Amino acid sequence: MISVRAVLIRFGWFGVVLALLTFPIVHIVGAPEVPALAVQRTAAQATSAPRARPGELEIRYLSVAAIKPQAPGRMRIGIMAPANPRADILFIHGHADRLDNHGPLFAAWNAAGYRVIAFDLPSHGESNILPIDVYSFDDLFALVRLVDAATLEDPQRPLLIAAWSFGGLVATRLAQQPEQLAALRRPLRGLILLAPAVAPYLFAGGDGISRLRTLTHNPHPPVAGPPSPAAPLQNPVFAARLLAEAWLARRAPLPQHLPVLILVAGTNEDWYVNASGVLAWAEQQQRGGVQIHSFQCIQARHALDNEPYPIGPTVRLLATDFVASALGEAKTTPSNQDAQTLAQRACSPQ
């Protein structure tokens, strides 16, 4: 069989993409096992341990048999809820990521009165639902709907979608397709995109490998584990789909009625997504009438919400204020003028 390297040398990256899109999947690698407790539970709904207290992360497991009947295990879901939620934020994590890598961001939303729901994508975290190579973007959209339906408490509660990196691409493509928005159980009230992979670099992290030291300046980031799977080409069909869907995302409009927040890292600091390309795309969308609010944190690396002070707290403040604005609520006010000045220095409006 011709190797990816050989195709790349002979035909360039576009040849690799076309080859991977047309080659059949001949081998499926098993995903890591989910705890036995999850496997024993019924497939009809999300199952969990005893309900967490307000502000704690509650873990549930959900069958995806309705989407992938051959999937052997369960998808992990995390929920962080205040005592009286005013909105639900469904979060989609990035490649080489997992739901419990964004604790400070979830805690900020939770403290503001918003319930956060997240899930581990295929091949990520503790989900055991077949490799991500066998999931099309339509399948990923179906996972989003499945999680929302399984965790729904109040159909009248506002719903927003937030996402980071590859998750931001998934959220963008969902929002760009009216039939996908219509399939949600509730109208989408807002979209938060953190360094969305609408303009990804061909080689993540500079050499095709995701590492904590290239993701964040934080020497001790609040993550549950190292990046895994570390390289997109560990899932070559996924990698090809990512590039193809990013190409489509840059050419399709977002809905004009939907408020959108876009936060990007520094142009020379982000080795995963082309920050200038994302800002150019955001400007193009804005010229088309989309309600986009974009900020650039010029000293930040790709993992914006986990960056050290003042960037991380500023990103979390902007993301929380945006939710309040989308819902017509009062925004969070910095405690003093110094905090406001630091915020302005950390992330500037574009």
Summary?
This protein has twelve helices and ten strands. With 350 residues, it is an alpha/beta fold. The protein has a ten-stranded mixed beta sheet, with helices on both faces.
CATH fold label: Rossmann fold
Mean pLDDT: 86
Helices, by number, come to: 12
Low-confidence stretches: 1-44
Q: What's the β-strand tally?
A: 10
CATH superfamily: Alpha/Beta hydrolase fold, catalytic domain
What is the topology, as strand order, of the major beta sheet? 1-2-3-5-4-6-7-8-9-10
Please indicate the count of domains.
1
Structure description:
- It is a single chain.
- This protein is of the alpha/beta class and 350 residues long.
- Helix content is 34%, strand content 15%.
- The protein contains 12 helices and 10 strands.
- It has a 10-stranded mixed sheet, sandwiched between helices.
- Strand 1 and strand 2 form a beta hairpin.
- It is globular, with a radius of gyration of 19 Å.
Give keywords:
Rossmann fold; 12 helices; single chain; 15% strand; 10-stranded mixed beta sheet; 350 residues
Walk me through the topology.
Elements: H1 4-11, H2 13-22, H3 36-39, E1 47-48, E2 57-62, E3 75-80, E4 87-92, H4 103-111, E5 114-119, H5 137-151, E6 159-164, H6 166-175, H7 178-183, E7 188-194, H8 212-215, H9 236-249, E8 260-264, H10 275-287, E9 292-296, H11 311-326, H12 337-346, E10 348-349
Parallel strand pairs: 4-5, 4-6, 6-7, 7-8, 8-9
Antiparallel strand pairs: 1-2, 2-3, 3-5, 9-10
